[in-house]
Structure formats: C-alpha cells, structure tokens
C-alpha cells in the first residue's frame, strides 16, 4: 500500500452556473486522488470527496438541467474562496492537478488558489494516447476503454462533480502508466492535437488523408485546436517533423 501521506495528483471536477467567471460561479467541486504505488504503477487512491459551493447567484434552469443542483442545496454552502484552497492545494502532498478539459476548470481554479500548480488535461492527453476512440468525452472514454477496477455506480450520475472526477481519475491512472507525468503536463500546456477532422466534407478523415487545399482552409479556423492540428500537419508535409510518430508498419500514428 502507498504510505499514509503520499504525494498525489488530485483530479477535480466543477459544476457551475455557466461557462465562465465572473458572470458565473462554482456550485459544486468533486475530487479523486491518484498516487504512485510502491510497485512503480499509478493507482486511484482514497475515497475522494465532494462539497457544495454557494455560487453567489441563482443557478439558471438551462444549467440545472445538466447537473440537477438546486438553489436550495447550495444556499447555505460556503463561498468558493473559502472552499477552493483546502481542496485544490493539499500542500505539500499535491504534485499536480488534473481535469477532463482542464481549460474550463482553470478559469475558476486560478494560480492564486492552486499555488501555481501544474495541470494535466486528460482530454488533450486522450487525443494523443487513444486516438482510435470514437469520441473523447469523459463518459465515452469510460465505456470504450472500460478501465480496470472502476465501480460503475460510483461513477454515476454523470455531470456531477464527484462521479465525474472519479471516472477521470481512472483515465489519468492509465495515462500515467502509459506515459510520463512530464509528458502529460507538456501535452496539456499546448492545444489539442486532433486525430480526425471534425467537420466539413473531410469529416472523419485522418489529417494526413486530406489534400493541401482542404488543409489550408483549416489554418484560419477560430478553434485553436483545429488551427494547431492543421499547422502541425502542414509542418509535417513541409519536412518539419511528424504529427505523432511512425508505427512499426511505417504509417502515421497519433499516440506520442
């Protein structure tokens, strides 16, 4: 078993009143830890947790329809500034934070609240490590990969803070056992490298399969992940390096 106070990567998930502060606030946070075991393998660790947060404003019905948190459930809860630091910064044990599509959580979990923590985005890392997944949402990855040891009911309901953090922790565990902590952090600090075209006449194709004219159109896309992927593929075609790595068969692979 890990030591009683091991260093941890804390996976978190937020439920909020909307897309971004300051117009919106956090109404729930959940967390689940992942730790490096004595056998050198990463494992999901501890019971995790959940806390309601008073968002300081009513929860819009359109948001309640996603997570089903009621105003009366959070009315007497502490405010975000009082909840965040103890959960986000269990100093000195925490070595990084993680979330699925971490860019969203980072809007609320500012460096001042996290003590400048490194972040891992399991969505960006899944694009690299598991490019054959039919989709890259937390739940699709769960049912496509069927992580060993996950308790089905403990990961429900979806779109609630603790169950989502619990599911993400199993993805993170498996990622850390396939790649290094540093690599996951590095991937998380740059835009996502998309394995397939997501829209238009080339939808579903690998980026290596589309012609130059089609590729050029994506260079001005508003989506930073689309632009980055198109730029990376263009650099490969110009001899500036591979998008991913070569498989033993010599075909382009998107897993490194």
From TrEMBL:
InterPro entries (alphabetical): Ribonucl_H, RNaseH-like_sf, RNaseH_sf
Keyword Nuclease attached: yes
Annotated ranges, domain Exonuclease: 8-181
Xref: SMART domains: EXOIII
Segments passing through the bilayer: none
Nucleus keyword on record: no
Molecular functions (GO terms): exonuclease activity
Protein name per the record: Exonuclease domain-containing protein
Organism expressing this protein natively: Sphingomonas hylomeconis
